[in-house]
Amino acid sequence: MQQVLTAPAPIPPDMAALGETPAAIEAHVAGLSRRVETPCGTGSMVWRIWGEGAPMLLLHGGYGSWSHWIRNVLPLSRMRMVIAPDLPGMGESATPLDPEDAGVMADIVVDGLHRLLPAGTKIDLAGFSFGGVLGGPIAVRLGASLRRFVIVGSNGLGVPRAPMAPMGSWRRLPDRDARLAVHRQTLEVLMLANPSRIDPLALHLQERNAEAGRIRTPEISRTDILRRSLPALRGRLAAIWGEQDNIARGALELRHAVLREADPVVPFRVIPGAGHWVSYEAAEDFDRVLTDLLAKD
Questions:
Q1: Strand 43-50 relative to strand 81-85: parallel, antiparallel, unpaired?
Q2: CA torsion 133→219→258→154, rounded to 10°?
Q3: Which residues are CB-contacts of 133 (< 8 A; sequence separation ≥ 6)?
Q4: Minimal CB count within 10 Å: which of 16, 35, 106, 281?
Q5: Is the pTM of this model over 0.90?
Q6: What are the backbone angles phi and psi of residue 29, rounded to the nearest 5°?
Q7: What CATH class is the domain 36-93+120-167+215-295?
């Protein structure tokens, strides 16, 4: 029997209007930013900044880059300064000298922020997946400069990860089509709730980001480093999860309970129908919820 291939979803209209190809769309959004470099290992950490006003720091997920936020940076920058770096060892940023030490990575990020922003500037921080895990020690290091920390679908809480279908590895596959099939599988199993929403831009970003990653972020995410960081926060806490996040499937309330240990009234928002990469799959809803959370005192 001949295999029936599912046609890819169309690129979301907000992105399709910005370029004819996924690479052109990515380049267009990046080109609207200010690109800044700060020290990282023996090289530089790359930051991109859109807009003006009160700073909002967006930290991407594991094996990712700033482009995990590609559907969010322009709408959010209409009201705020949006800062979306490539974390150490990912995207265009250099690898840290100790790539297995989350504290070293957090120090690099906070040092960069101190170089970018005036002393004492209040910062809102949102961290997606590994960005939220690393966001824990970063938020602690920010001290009184932290205004609010929004955790987006992160592990690092010392709770079990839901069982998922096995995913292949692209690393030893010489053929690009074979690697793309694995990247699509990752989007289907891990990143999105609905496989029918996998579009050429999402696949392009998954390929680019995964193949540029040099940090074993799952090793750090399986620890409880985020949970251990929360009691020392000097800012407020909030959380956003996709209702169908496969990592937390059936255990959203358990994650909420862990966060309530640090803040008994922590806002915990669940976006219906969205998976792990909630900021991409449900971008408009995510932006609305994040903006609402950051508007609170």
A1: antiparallel
A2: 40
A3: 102, 127, 154, 155, 156, 217, 220, 221, 225, 226
A4: 35
A5: yes
A6: -65, -45
A7: alpha beta
The helix/strand/coil state of 167 is coil
**Using only C-alpha atoms, what is the Rg of the chain?**
18
Contact (Cβ atoms closer than 8 angstroms) between residue 110 and residue 85:
no
Which pair of tokens denotes residue 155? Answer: 């592990």
Would you say 78 and 51 are in contact if contact means Cβ atoms under 8 Å apart?
yes
Q: Say which amino acid occupies 262.
A: A
Say if residues 208 and 67 touch (Cβ distance below 8 Å): yes
The owner of tokens 């959370």 is 293
Q: Where is 190: in which H helix or E strand?
A: none
pLDDT digits (tens, 9 = 90+) for 222-239: 999 999 999 999 999 999
Phi/psi of residue 151, nearest 5 degrees: -90, 130
- Which residue is associated with the tokens 């291939």? 5
Note whether 200 and 291 are within 8 A (CB): no
Which two three-digit tokens encode residue 275? 């998976």
Percent over 70 (pLDDT), the chain: 98
